[in-house]
Design a protein that fits this description.
This is ArsR family transcriptional regulator. The chain has a single domain, classed as Orthogonal Bundle (Arc Repressor Mutant, subunit A). It starts with 20 loop residues before the first helix and ends with a helix. The protein is of the alpha+beta class and 104 residues long. It has four helices and three strands; from the N terminus they run H-E-H-H-E-E-H.
């Protein structure tokens, strides 16, 4: 299949790690922030603790995000940030989407 400019595109080239509603939402939030706490992501993504944890782990295992765990007043605080690899993957994902919808 080709786009308006005659260039080939293939939806199967979309990054399967990012191409999940929750993981895409996480990446979209983190792309504009230095870092974000677990509860902030939970609120923005509208996911349960368990569901969010699974998706964060998948992104972290892929090297797209990193986490930092600490205790403040004996309460756990986990923050996440996009890695350089994650930023590059997200930008490539968006570029591929733009090809599919004919913006590039």
């Amino acid at each position: 299949m080709t786009d308006k400019s005659g260039k080939d595109f293939n939806y199967q080239k979309l990054d399967e790690v990012i191409h999940s509603r929750i993981r895409l939402a996480i990446m979209s939030v983190l792309i504009g922030l230095e870092e974000a706490e677990f509860n902030f992501l939970k609120e923005k993504v509208k996911a349960t603790d368990g569901n969010l944890s699974v998706h964060l782990r998948k992104l972290e295992d892929s090297g797209y995000i990193s986490s930092k765990k600490e205790f403040i007043d004996r309460k756990p605080k986990t923050t996440y940030k996009l890695t350089a690899k994650g930023r590059k993957a997200f930008e490539a994902y968006i570029e591929q989407l733009e090809k599919i919808i004919g913006k590039k």
